[in-house]
Write a structure and sequence with these properties.
Layout (H helix, E strand, L loop, with lengths): L4 E6 L1 H21 L3 H17 L1 E6 L3 E6 L3 E6 L3 E8 L7 E5 L2 E5 L4 E7 L4 E5 L3 H11 L5 E3 L3
Helix pairs in contact: 1-2
């Protein structure tokens, strides 16, 4: 597999918020005594810490691979791409995985993203620090067969 584009984003704000919540839960458990509720909260927060600590985006000739933390991986078939555009996410979109009416947003940091529309009109918004580079890579793979839109 020849990787043409690779980027790893670290969700610094999410790591701070979730990590601080885990430490706070451990401290409160120490002060007030550990209970099943405290352990449940720590496990719940740890799951989100593992999920949102980083996001890796890799592109090869056949697919876009999005890996969130150590838990979730999504592959998108490059041959199914119909349209690509630069996308600026609102602040509340920038953390995590969010459903859209006809697709998904994947992002852990920042407000820049690339919006990809597939032939079946499924939409994926992928957070990235380098949207122009990701768009150029996808355009070169698809041999300019996709529509490149300006800011949406």
């Amino acid at each position: 597999m020849n990787i043409l584009y690779k980027e790893t984003q670290v969700g610094k704000i999410l790591i701070g918020l979730i990590g601080g919540s885990i430490v706070g839960s451990i401290y409160l458990g120490y002060i007030f005594g550990y209970s099943i509720l405290c352990f449940g909260l720590i496990l719940f927060l740890s799951f989100f810490f593992l999920l949102y600590s980083f996001m890796r985006t890799e592109v090869d000739r056949y697919k876009i691979s999005i890996t969130l933390g150590w838990i979730l991986k999504k592959n998108i078939d490059v041959s199914e791409i119909k349209e690509i555009s630069n996308f600026e996410e609102p602040l509340f979109y920038t953390w995590g995985i969010k459903p859209l009416a006809n697709g998904w947003i994947y992002s852990v940091d920042g407000y820049k993203a690339v919006k990809i529309i597939l032939r079946d009109d499924t939409v994926y918004v992928i957070g990235t620090k380098n949207p122009e580079q990701l768009i150029q890579t996808l355009q070169s793979i698809t041999r300019n067969k996709v529509e490149i839109k300006k800011e949406s």
